């Protein structure tokens, strides 16, 4: 079968390469011409380290199994078209479907009868029926009769794209059980894990719910952390003992929730059920709790500095970590960005370090020189190993606010730090 993948980003490109590796004739559709050029020279335009992707691309592009284009006309004879374009939400938490609509619009002009179209992007419940279907049927073709239409949400994490695609189960939401069966046969070529048939609504809900679940779990841990601060307990000890109770899996509290999917998908879920009689309260509240955590870090810092008779607007603060996740260079929706915005607004001078983010690389001790406080936002391995005595000696004021339990309270205090952490009562 002749495949096309629309959107060669961190999902579309690995998917295209994996189907090409299995012998499919794959055409990648990408509007960014520079990426088309990079891919057609067998290279990956994806930032960050993706084990195996570069070699796989060289092989399948070299083997003429994968080719990229930016011309929709080239898609005319394709039997199976997967759509992997971005589906962000804006600052009002409303989905921005411009890319999805444009892809469906363009595809509808070249869609051939008998084709199978599958949306892999994460979309709000109701989007298949309300947005995708009308656009694909606009030239008279009818889903279920002239072409088949499905939703198979992607489940990948940066840094493990190829492994995830092989090992994570997927939901095949077809416009009919027959279409789901055809989707499962297709994905069986690249997925070793479960493939489950479902309808569109179920597929849309599974993806957004699984990430809303994680967001709510993290928010619960964060709220317990705030309780522990007041109660004079250590939330990590409380969590450890709570999780000894059967069926408890309390998540890890911290300095906030970043990334490309957890902060976004709960809003897609909420959007999908907006206007229904179900008033969502828990899911938006969890978002608010998690988005507040960077500001809680500022509050801990202000408290610590007050104890040193310092005010934030006279201080220089070193922020350790700008990525949203440990040992990653991905900065999307980074809680550090929210923290830094807060510190700027309060007049602090901010220095940022992150060994994975180019503009913030450098010697951490040089950056710490003369600072009045260090705020640890990401648990990069490099930070766990920092020599605390040396760090303390470079600082003007030995305040250490730890958002990810990078350091051990006892040893930090032995090194002379005034050490505070999320969820650590005093
Ligand atoms: N975080 C916490 N406490 C936790 C877990 C995470 O504060 O207990 C924070 C992280 O610091 C980060 C954010 O939440 O800022 C997101 O972390 P994440 O571990 O969920 O990483 P992501 O964003 O890569 O999430 C992806 C998701 N996978 C897919 O969308 C396919 C998510 O569903 C997975 O659970 C997660 O990877 C994972 O566990 O690997």
Description:
By secondary structure, the chain is of the alpha/beta class. It is 41% helix and 13% strand. The chain has 16 helices and 13 strands. It has helices at 12-21, 33-40, 53-62, 98-110, 127-136, 161-167, 177-187, 200-231, 235-242, 265-272, 282-307, 335-345, 364-368, 381-384, 388-394, 409-414; strands at 2-6, 25-29, 66-69, 80-83, 116-119, 148-151, 170-174, 195-198, 316-320, 349-353, 373-376, 399-402, 418-421. The strands form two sheets. Strands 3-2-1-4-5-6-7-8 form an eight-stranded mixed β-sheet, sandwiched between helices. Helix 5 links the parallel strand 5 and strand 6 (148-151). Helix 11 packs across helix 12 (335-345). The longest helix is centred in the middle third of the chain and has 32 residues, at 200-231. The mean pLDDT is 97. Ligand SAJ is lined by residues 155-157, 210-211, 214, 218, 251-252, 254, 257-259, 261-262, 324-325.
- Percent strand equals 5-15%
Proportion of residues in helical segments? 40-55%
Report the principal-axis shape. Answer: elongated
Outline the biggest β-sheet.
8 strands, mixed
Number of H- or I-type helical stretches: 16
First and last CA, distance = 64 Å
Bound molecules: ligand SAJ
What would the average pLDDT be, to the nearest integer? 97
Number of strands: 13
What are the secondary-structure elements, in order, as H or E? EHEHHEEHEHEHEHEHHHHEHEHEHHEHE
pLDDT < 50 stretches: none
- The class by helix and strand makeup works out as alpha/beta
- Tell me the Rg in angstroms: 24 Å
Question: Which strand order do you get reading across the main beta sheet?
Answer: 3-2-1-4-5-6-7-8
